[in-house]
Amino acid sequence: MSDIAHSTVTLDGHFAREFKEMAIPWRAEEAPDPDLLVLNEPLAAELSLDPAFLRSPEGLLLLIGNALPAEASPVAQAYAGHQFGWYASRLGDGRALLLGEIRHADGQLRDLHLKGSGRTPFARNGDGQAVVGPMLREFIVSESMHALNIPTTRSLAVVATGRSVQRETLLPGAILTRVASSHLRVGSFQYAGSTGDTGLLRRLADYALDRHYPTAVEAENRYLALLQGVISAQAALVAQWMLVGFVHGVMNTDNMTISGETLDYGPCAFMEGFDPAVVYSSIDETGRYAYRNQPLVAEWNLARLAESLLPLLHDDQEQAVDLAVEALGEFRRQYSGTWSAGMKAKLGLHEGLDDEVTSPLVDELVALLQESRADYTSFFRHLGKAARGQAETARSQVSDPAAFDDWVARWRALAPDADSMDGVNPVYIPRNHLVEEALTAATAGNTGPLKQLMDAVASPFDERPGLERYAAPAPDSFGPYRTFCGT
Ligand code: AMP
Ligand code: MG
């Protein structure tokens, strides 16, 4: 482990300094033969990091935490969490590290974080490693979400370590360099709350307010305002997932952020044929995290956050509970509001149109999609053509063309705006078969397909000739899709 003093990299250690109870100083394991697989140059620029430097041997060592500025104080963060409904009082970064905070061009701090950087004191039985496929999957899907204007942690780089990692077979190891508004989770508050140290809980809440909800400190009850802020942010986030057909796959409370960014891309996937019950995670046997359950689970997770915050909401516990319940009641209203507005936008309908007119149209369309198992993404894109009078492609995707014709006639009478539809209905999402193709090739040493896929999903609304295969659903031969957790 060497230190570097590269003048352009300033890593603060704010969390490490202020939250010693929740941060274990730790160092990344040394990688035997680091090799940069992919670098996010636009994101590097936003962080004032020179891509040429990051590509240099010294820069590579920074990206994997093997050579850090002298002032850096990397830590493994402690957190608790409900996993599939079961409470674990001590999870924490078992294979991850917070390197420190770095200033973004927007003036806000970002966490610079590693995933796959070796065992930490939180590792339990885990090996501390991550492998190329899943780290590239997070890179692809998180950057795709960003391009879709959905709040998310970002991916700066994936570096192969040169180490072989035992999974079902031996696989090449890798480290993801992740950038986030913070890594504060519902599980961070569960951890702080469970210590019984209200001082720690208050400091953590103040830190979250400072980083994510600075205007909430003006509120009469700033901790209630924090809870309300997280509820709003998560209601909006999950509504956006639903609108784009995204299934997170492992919505444990330790994977739900305080910032409202999507966190932790494990067994996630974009839905193809519309099926509200769809589950992609191989370990989600009961379908707890199925597409249609996501708003309910988010609400359940936020109730866990509210419980943790109770001692800060009011000195009188009964009154604290009343405040929490009232705040949680807002989730459904805000979720439904964002979802309905988003559906209107997907249909190109003027936002001023009365919900009593638009809701039945939306409901009928959703029923038609479900009955037809129509490809969710391409159907909405083709609907843009239908708004221009060319309904044939969308019509060919439904099982009841007569019902569709009737629906289109009523919809077009409301004058849908085709151009605005094209700005919200993506052409390119990271389709599962293309992600698998890119990961398989990259694991075997060829990052060409990964780069082509990234090109497509980086501008999801901009249809380009030559990229037709990136807009098409998986061939039938691809079969039902499953992804695997925690690898
Ligand atoms: P996740 O399912 O990725 O959100 O991880 C849940 C918990 O398991 C976290 O505490 C992780 O740090 C830990 N974990 C997952 N995989 C590993 C691994 N290979 N080695 C050590 N800890 C791990
Ligand atoms: Mg996690």
List keywords for this structure.
single chain; 487 residues; alpha+beta; 2 domains; five-stranded antiparallel β-sheet; globular; binds magnesium ion
Strand order of the largest sheet: 3-10-11-9-8
Helical fraction: 40-55%
SS strand fraction: 5-15%
Number of helices: 18
Question: How many structurally independent domains?
Answer: 2
Alpha-carbon Rg, integer: 23 Å
By oligomeric state, this entry counts as single chain
Distance between the termini: 26 Å
Described by strand count, sense and barrel closure, the largest sheet is: 5 strands, antiparallel
Bound molecules: adenosine monophosphate, magnesium ion
Query: Low-confidence parts lasting 5 or more residues at pLDDT below 50?
Result: none
Structural category: alpha+beta
In round numbers, the mean pLDDT is: 96
Count of strand segments: 13
